[in-house]
Design a protein that fits this description.
Keywords: Membrane, Transmembrane, Transmembrane helix. With 242 residues, this protein is an alpha+beta fold. Helices cover 62% and strands 15% of the residues. The protein has seven helices and eight strands. The radius of gyration is 32 Å and the shape is elongated.
Amino acid sequence: MLNLLVDFKNNSQFYIINSIAILVLWLPALFMYYSLFNYLKVKDKPKYLNKLAISLITLDIILSTIFSSISLVFVNLDIVSISTDSVIALTTLVLGYLFIAIYYFVIFIWSHYLWMIFDETKINTLSDKVSYDKITKVVNDVDSNNVYLNFLEGVRKNRKLKMNKNSATAKFFLESCGIVKINVEEISQQKFYSTQEANSKEAVYEKLNKNTKKTDPIKPENTKSVEKTEKDKKETKTEKND
């Protein structure tokens, strides 16, 4: 075990792994703060900012950076002992990646809880821009305590954003839907989404059938008839020439 830790401490691949951790954290983080800056510049439009969520995600970024930095320090310097330094370096690196995973989960799954803007043509969140003409239905679900924004991504892919009815985000969303004249229906989200998925699959199936459909080949009987007709024409022409 001691030899394994010593090898780990002297392994150059550790620096690569640590550098990747910092890179995959700060590239999207910089984009997030750039988007946040643009959000703050928006005036006279319905918008919502969850300051607590922004604070927590910022704390997550800071902690991940700190743990990754500590990991580099302990792998480069002999602070306690080789084995202890290696254990600390590995542990802090794992913690750094854990906070990175949390960050990615939030920005891809819950980004609409960070901020939301309703502009002239679309709804903007950190990771989604939903055009009004792509919205299939806004559902105030009668079977759960959630509100759903259903929309098309691309041509046929159905997507949805879920918000808890008791959250400030959902309340802002419903109020803003009224401002921009988006209809909100109180129906079952599960039934609606199942129907949408079935319709999409049926449309794809029909399109596939059209693309693969081929013209029926000429039947053998028809081929013989054509050959016979051509032969008769030639004989008739020969008789006329005679």
